[in-house]
Predict the structure.
Amino acid sequence: MICPTMSGVDLDGNLVKTECIKHECAKYIQVMGHNPNTGEETNQWKCSDAWIPLLLIENSQQQRSTGAAVESFRNEMVADNRAVLQLAAINNPSLITQE
């Protein structure tokens, strides 16, 4: 496997390909969890550059989940605020403003 980090172009403009040094490289990492595309468990070692697309997909899924939770919480708070305002209006009718 060719290492994208250590490969490149030398000073003469020649393409230099370097073999991956795997566990000796700081960018060679282990990822354990579930594949966001297939849902199957994964426990693999790869270059962190190779994990980026998969981790971006997982991050997007987590952001959508967080957005849905925030919206649900907001809806609950709106309902609770309406109930509190209705109770307050019963006890103090001057709180109701007419436009």
Remarks:
- The mean pLDDT is 86.
- Helices lie at 48-91.
- Residues 22-95 form one domain.
